[in-house]
Amino acid sequence: MLRKRSFVKPVKKISMEQNTSQTFFDKIWDSHVIRHIEDDVYLLHVDRHMVHECTSGAAFAALKRSDRRVHSADLTYSVVDHILSTAPGRTGETFPGGREFVSLLRKNCAEHDLELIDFDDPRQGIVHVIAPELGIALPGTTLVCGDSHTSTCGGMGCWAWGIGTSEVAHVLATQSILQRRPKRMRVNFHGKAGEGVYAKDMILHLIGQVGVAAGQGHTVEYAGSAIRGLGIEGRLTICNMSIEFGAKAGFVAPDDVTFEYLAGKPYAPQGQLWDQAVSHWRTLCSDADAAFDREVDIDCSTIRPQVTWGTSPEDVSSLDQPLPDPADIADPVRRRAIEEAFSYLGLEPGKP
Predict the structure, then answer these.
(1) Residue 309 resides in a domain
(2) Where does the Aconitase/3-isopropylmalate dehydratase large subunit alpha/beta/alpha domain lie (predicted)?
(3) Would you list the DSSP string of 94-119?
(4) Most CB atoms within 10 A, among 2, 6, 76, 168?
């Protein structure tokens, strides 16, 4: 049975100097600032907090030591998903290694009156998969979880990112989080992808072009005609791998594809609230003349099906390309990394 939850909680309004043109990220950021702390550090409101058994135990223990309760139970979503068997007919005893973690999450949820999606609940699944499936991840919201690939949910048009255990405790206690304002990157996927090229190929091609450190310090907006042509699953796939090139998070601005997917989801707004929400969500896009700190353009017509061959996400080539020759790589660090990957995997330069 679904617990009645708030669609959104009000954020304290503060006076901020804004440019007339904003990126999609700027609009989310500015609407969630509670207080400017210092320099580029701000206190932000968190709209959705996903909790699982693997990283929450120490966070709940921190609350207990400080004699605190969970601040916003209605904005906290708990699920068993990390240390759990996937075998048919599983029980809590199927994977003994996870028993203690699962039991502790159940205990903490009971103590703090939190709804728990347990292993035998038909809604149960991977935390950053069920958030879109259930309508927990909504456009324009902030969503955090103690899982590095929380950025997957950015495909729904929200700003979603992974946090550490001490941050999990802070969000549980205050429904807020301290953040440095990241830089803004936009990756434009233009044109039409060829036969056999899917979302995974698009993001792997990007990582192969820009490297695994290109996104450091940035949030990334994925845009362009090829992105608009993707369904929700493809968008989630691309946003999931934002972390693989160092970005804090990735997202796709919401559109009719998003709204159609969310309509009728259990935790999405209903009735008149739905109409109001969609009207607002349609404003969540980058203004035409909004400025980004970095832009990357990818011609999707040039992308072939991709395959990774090494020990890093940037070790990627088209299926019809031979393996690279380290001798042709000018960067000594990159050259050494390829040599070590070849040695580890028993590969040879120039082989298909």
Answers:
(1) no
(2) 26-351
(3) SSGGGHHHHHHHHHHHHHTT--EE-T
(4) 168
Judge whether residue 8 has pLDDT over 60: no
Confidence of residue 16 (pLDDT cuts 50, 70, 90): very low
Buried b / exposed e along 110-147 (16+ C-beta atoms within 10 A): eebebbbbbbeeeebeebbbbbbbbbbbbbbbbbbbbb
CATH number at residue 23: 3.30.499.10
Domain range enclosing 82: 19-181
Q: What is the pLDDT of residue 15?
A: 41
Angle at 262 between CA 258 and CA 266, to 5 degrees: 165
Strands 176-180 and 33-38, bridge-based pairing: unpaired
Pull the structure tokens for residue 300.
């999707």
Residue 237 identity: T
Question: SS3 string of 8-65?
Answer: CCCCCCCCCCCCCCCCHHHHHHHHHEEEEEECCEEEEECCEEEEECCCCHHHHHHHHH
In angstroms, rounded to a whole number, what is the distance separating the alpha carbons of residues 289 and 152?
Answer: 27
Of the candidates 248, 241, 276, which has an alpha carbon nearest to the alpha carbon of residue 140? 276
What is the arrangement of strands in the sheet containing 159-162, beginning at the earlier edge strand? 116-117, 76-79, 48-52, 142-145, 159-162
The model's pLDDT over 300-347, given as tens digits with 9 standing for 90+, comes to 999 999 999 999 999 999 999 999 999 999 999 999 999 999 999 999
Q: Which of 22, 24, 27 is nearest to 222 (CA)?
A: 24
User: How does DSSP assign 288-301, residue by residue?
Assistant: TT---SEEEEEEGG
Instruction: Give me the pLDDT at residue 11, please.
Output: 47
**What are 153-189's pLDDT values in tens digits?**
999 999 999 999 999 999 999 999 999 999 999 999 9
CA 71 to each of CA 2, 9, 74, 160, 172: distance values in angstroms, whole numbers, following the listed order: 20, 12, 9, 20, 6
Q: Residue 266 is encoded by which pair of tokens?
A: 């259990």
Number of domains making up the chain: 1
What is the residue whose two structure tokens read 């796709």?
252
